[in-house]
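During the second half of the funding period, the structural biology subgroup turned its attention to how the target accommodates small molecules. The most pressing case was coenzyme A, which had performed well in the primary screen but for which no bound structure existed. We therefore specified the complex as follows and requested a full 3D prediction, including the ligand pose.
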Amino acid sequence: MTLTVRPVERRDYRDLLAMLVALWPKESTRDHGRQIRSILNGKPRSILPLTMFVAERDGALVGFVEVGLRSHANGCDPVRAVGFIEGWYVASHLRKQGIGRALFAAAERWCRSHGCREMASDTWTDHRRSVKAHVALGYAVEGNFVNFRKRLR
Ligand SMILES: CC(C)(COP(=O)(O)OP(=O)(O)OC[C@H]1O[C@@H](n2cnc3c(N)ncnc32)[C@H](O)[C@@H]1OP(=O)(O)O)[C@@H](O)C(=O)NCCC(=O)NCCS
């Protein structure tokens, strides 16, 4: 079986959309579709570069990573943009076989090519498996923060 990790292409749209819905079920399918199309059109909805890589095994999409640059991230040096893992997903029946690691490697290469020297990511505090997978890939838990948000009128 061959595993390929490559940048997202138009033909991936339908399968990728299904994976985004699986990872973020609370967000609307329409918003996910818009997000994918913006990246495919080279106009991501972000100020800094943002892209997606997909993992393909024997012709089927089995995972993706969404990765971008952020101007800063907790614990990272603020003098330069940091690579940030925005989303990471592998089909449930194929986990723990190295596909997530291959996706991270592609994301990190892309960030390095954009001048980053550090990577950051986040996950839900009660998501132990994701935390363990991040740690296994060399990511240290940084601080113990709760995120707040307020819309300005
Ligand atoms: C997190 C996720 C993407 C990992 O993908 P994966 O293909 O299983 O990852 P890999 O097999 O490449 O594993 C990478 C490392 O993490 C470790 N790991 C993966 N899943 C783990 C788990 N459930 N418990 C402990 N360690 C785990 C692996 O052992 C491996 O380390 P190693 O090479 O030293 O053994 C996948 O489990 C997933 O899609 N989960 C649901 C969505 C999610 O939680 N996404 C992350 C939040 S954005």
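Two results from this model are relevant to the next phase. The chain has a mean pLDDT of 96. Strands lie at 3-7, 50-57, 60-70, 82-90, 119-121.
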